[in-house]
User: Fold this.
Amino acid sequence: MQEEYRREGVSPQTDELASTLMGDAFDLLASGEPFEVLLAVQDASGTITSYEFQDDGPEACLEAARARVGELKDAIRYALTYEGAVADEDGTYADALLLEFGERGYRAYSAFSLIDGKGSGDGFTWSDPAPAGEMPPLL
Assistant:
């Protein structure tokens, strides 16, 4: 689909899928359980399939997750999340949970939440998700 024909915004279903995936990732980070990339994909019937990519470097896992979305012919929407860092205005980097999400026929977007206290249970904190820009759509 050409970019100019994609809808802007995010459907409630994609928002819910992405929010649920981020919540799952926050739980893993709070408990100190490592992961590289988490992916959730929903089909037209509403079935959600989850994947975890690990045993490779972070970039290879991210590439594999993005490729998996494109391989799933029944996929309607997706969200994937992974750890990274974001720079603030003065160039200082902070740990963050990064999120990419999209839906067939829509533009794809990314967001991030700053994180602190990995593995500290109730001491783990995160910021509200902030937009990080448009991404190339995977569907």
Notes: The mean pLDDT is 94. The longest strand covers residues 75-87. The beta strands are 37-43, 48-53, 75-87, 93-103, 108-116, 125-126, 130-135.
